[in-house]
Amino acid sequence: MSLISNQSRKFPHWRKDFTASLVVFLVALPLCVGVAVASGVPAELGLITGIVGGLITGFLPGSSLQVSGPAAGLTVLVFGAVDEYGLPALGVIVLATGLIQLAMGALKLGRWFRAISLSVVEGMLAGIGLVLIAGQLYSAAGLEAPASGIDKIIGLPGAAADAVGSTEALTSLALGAGTVAVMVLWKRLPKAAQTLPGALAAVVLATAVTAAFGLSVATVEVNGLLDSIQPPGADAFGQLASVGLLGTIVAFTLIASAESLFSAAAVDRLHTGPRTEYNKELMAQGAGNTVCGVLGALPMTAVIVRSSANVSAGARTKASRVLHGVWLLLFAALLPSALALIPLPALAGILVHAGWKLIPFKGVVALWRGHRGEALILVVTAVSIVAVNMFEGVLIGLALSVVKTAWEASHLKLEIVDKGAGPVQVHLTGNATFLRLPKILESLEALPQDRPVELDLSGLHHLDHACRTALENWAERHSSAGTDPVKVTEPEKAPAAKAPV
């Protein structure tokens, strides 16, 4: 009795953290396996990333309650990287990603990821969700999916026709659809039943149905935990000379870091405990990805599904996420053969459900009503990812976001006062940047050539070099027509700061 009381004094939240760790383990297990299979790598590599997320990242400071592991948001990017550069190169990519994250955290750049437009991030997730859903529909039917995102979507009608003509494909598809149905309906059950996570319940039921009826569907291939660990060799590091591989590393770094830090902000809103230290959290993610890279495993991010489950289960300290890593390690070490029983259509169903949740349907409608420019950025980013690829799609979204911000910052008012006699007065107020230059020159060039002009720039807060040069050139041309020289009133300069006495 005294032992229990002493333990309670040293670890006052151990009961809640222990219970929460079991819940997070049950949520993480099918997702780790499903993300790995969808990424085109051995299922054990997903478990390894989950273990590292618990035992390494879970110990480090940053955000005490969010849980890290393989994420559905990186599935499309990982599959493309493995398909193009091979599985050994994955370790190099993840290792480089981790080292860059460590460097960015050390340089205190973590907070800058919070400055990324939310519309770009949501568009990125929506694009990933669309490609993920399309790809997993093929897997659910036991068919081979095309390589590119746009081909996956365009090829769906043909895949549906092929599935209708195959009993095995229809059986596989029905099992995947049943998995999705269980996950959707699970939330409507009494809370006592929801103690078991919906994803795990769906996988267990699908596995039981497959075994009971002897269904002819594909199941997870098991290689063994140690056999799946493949540290990158010299040949893999040699691929760093490839510009494409370097671009993939940048994409991994950008997406993994942004997703982790946005997840941290979301998790902070779910509890009243210590707030996230963003630079430390970025370094924690970097340490985890560095280890995953050395082991040749999947990249990790903080995952909002596992993190919210951790908070909802009553976790109070980082002990819960560390313990969830322990449970994943024990499962992988003691029960690896259990993976071979899991039908692939069930995992495809889980990822279709996960992909659907990545698409912010309500958010798009709300943005369109209040901020149509942001809604456009979200949609363009998502469509670009589907039509081109992940990296270039995100860059397009970021570029569009920067242009929109610059345009909105260039508020300019141009007023022309013509009293019929005397000089024409032109007043410019606001911010004159190159983005507003066409409007300015169009108005000035429409002024009468035979009248003197007074150009008042005193109301400008900002006049960039492009605008100043264009205005000087226009004034010179206007004055050369035999009229009086254009009289220019320069912008007011801010008063110089007084030296301290």
UniProtKB/TrEMBL annotation:
User: What membrane topology does the annotation report for this chain?
Assistant: Multi-pass membrane protein
Which PANTHER family does this one have?
SULFATE TRANSPORTER (PTHR11814)
In this chain, the stretch annotated as Disordered covers 478-501
Q: Does the keyword Transmembrane helix apply?
A: yes
The taxonomy runs: Bacteria, Bacillati, Actinomycetota, Actinomycetes, Kitasatosporales
Residues covered by the SLC26A/SulP transporter domain: 15-381
Keywords assigned = Membrane, Transmembrane, Transmembrane helix
Pfam families assigned to the protein according to its UniProt record, in alphabetical order: Sulfate_transp
Q: Which superkingdom? A: Bacteria
Name of the protein described by the UniProt record: SulP family inorganic anion transporter
Which subcellular locations apply to this protein? Answer: Membrane
Which ranges does the record mark as transmembrane? 20-38, 45-65, 85-104, 116-138, 169-186, 198-220, 240-262, 326-356, 376-403
List, alphabetically, the InterPro entries matched. SLC26A/SulP_dom (IPR011547), SLC26A/SulP_fam (IPR001902)
